[in-house]
Specification:
heterodimer, A: 123 residues, mainly alpha, 2 domains, 5 helices, 2 strands, elongated, B: 291 residues, alpha/beta, Rossmann fold, globular, WH_DNA-bd_sf (chain A)
Chain lengths: 123, 291
């Protein structure tokens, strides 16, 4: 697991985003245990309360669950849930931003579409 | 759970007033960061809590009991500081045993584990230890004592980068396993920014900030863009400092932004980190910007 923290977003949101990404990429597989609050806290020198707050976001999103006395486990459909969520956010997170930048650069709709086609054509 | 209450604590050294009417409560299971420029009064404050030096006025209560000459109350507090209270001829393991006389729950097992990890030889005499290893030994004691309130005054002074990293990790593990009150005073803000939940900022002997790290960062912004638009956007806001590069300008704002104002496309709003906030709040530029 690789944590890259920036300074402009609350730390607990970054913790949640990093674990979510690790689940999405399969580093933490379905039904597997994720590292404990103490482990993450220790390894990345983050206050355990901050780590827990981040994890609780994932619990509320239905991505992980707490098994009493054992720890946090990845739910079976977590990866699929993240995929659906990210598909819904794709337009806002990528397409809209791309169009703003394209306009700034003076690239028209056709030019952008041809670039998208070129991108899909490349391996 | 132990609670420490400071009421109207002031301290004068000769004619200079180092602390001015400090009211402060330390409670719950929290890691506090005690921040301030050199000479802001951080060490003095910690020394007063541990009754190593007397306050000029005001009182410190530990679970409702005055801390002056009160061994029972002071047994709940441990202060790790630059001051060396040990005899040069005492060996490290002997110092551990002596500490356990005052803190009977001293965790010898943890202390031995830590001396191994830090590669500190327990048979060495205190006088033979380097500055860095003296700090390491005192940090180990601070993590192993069973006090409910651990005050760490510059715990990483003299430690190399690898030992600082190891110390922060061991601190997090010790805290996660047995939550208690930690107060960490340090200049290396960047290194502890993720550790501390609550910020205490001393400036000119006064407690300037006393709030959670999260609350403070949620109202700290960098507004960046062309000079003219940035200044229009931040006019009347609590600008605590700025950086500029030619006509490009970043204004640092502490406090609420004005939702009614329209943010120009060319101007960006981002959060800032604790170190940036600290520098801008304490470097005196703030007063100038407000003037």
């Amino acid at each position: 697991m690789q944590f890259n923290f920036n300074s402009s977003e609350p730390l607990y949101l970054q913790v949640a985003a990093q674990i979510e990404n690790a689940i999405f990429l399969g580093s933490f597989a379905a039904n597997e245990q994720i590292p404990s609050t103490t482990e993450i806290s220790r390894d990345f020198k983050i206050n355990p309360a901050t780590v827990l707050k981040g994890m609780n976001i994932l619990v509320n999103d239905g991505l992980i669950e707490k098994k009493r006395g054992l720890g946090m486990f990845v739910l079976a459909d977590a990866q699929e849930k993240i995929r659906v969520k990210r598909q819904n956010e794709f337009f806002h997170d990528y397409i809209q931003k791309m169009i703003v930048e394209a306009r700034n650069l003076g690239l028209g709709k056709e030019a952008v579409i041809s670039l998208v086609e070129k991108g899909f054509g490349e391996k | 759970m132990t609670e420490v209450n400071l009421t109207q604590i002031s301290k004068k050294f000769g004619k200079s007033t180092v602390l001015k009417q400090i009211d402060l409560t330390l409670a719950g299971q929290t890691i506090y960061g005690l921040l301030g420029r050199n000479g802001a009064g951080k060490s003095t404050l910690l020394n007063i809590i541990e009754n190593r030096i007397p306050a000029t006025s005001g009182s410190v209560q530990i679970d409702g009991e005055d801390n002056v000459n009160n061994d029972l109350a002071l047994g709940k507090v441990y202060l790790m500081s630059e001051q060396n209270l040990y005899s040069n001829s005492a060996k490290v393991d002997q110092i551990f045993r002596e500490t356990a006389l005052f803190y009977p729950g001293f965790d010898f097992e943890l202390a031995h584990q830590l001396t191994n990890k830090f590669e500190l030889n327990e048979n060495l005499r205190f006088g033979k230890l380097s500055t860095g290893y003296r700090a390491v030994m005192k940090d180990i004691i601070a993590l192993a004592v069973d006090a409910e309130v651990i005050l760490l005054d510059e715990p990483t002074l003299g430690l190399d980068a690898a030992h600082r990293e190891l110390f922060y990790q061991e601190l997090m593990e010790a805290y996660a396993k047995r939550p208690r009150i930690f107060v960490i005073s340090t200049h290396l803000i960047e290194e502890i920014a993720g550790l501390i939940e609550h910020v205490l900022l001393l400036k000119d002997g006064k407690m300037m900030l006393n709030d959670t790290t999260e609350n403070l960062l949620a109202q700290s912004y960098a507004i960046t863009g062309p000079e003219k638009q940035v200044q229009e956007y931040t006019a009347g806001l609590n600008v605590i400092g700025h950086d500029s590069l030619g006509k490009l300008r970043s204004d640092y704002v502490f406090g609420e932004l004005d939702d009614q104002r329209i943010l120009p496309d060319t101007v960006s709003v981002e959060g800032i980190d604790l170190q940036k906030l600290f520098i801008n709040l304490t470097n005196g530029q703030w007063e100038k910007e407000r003037a």
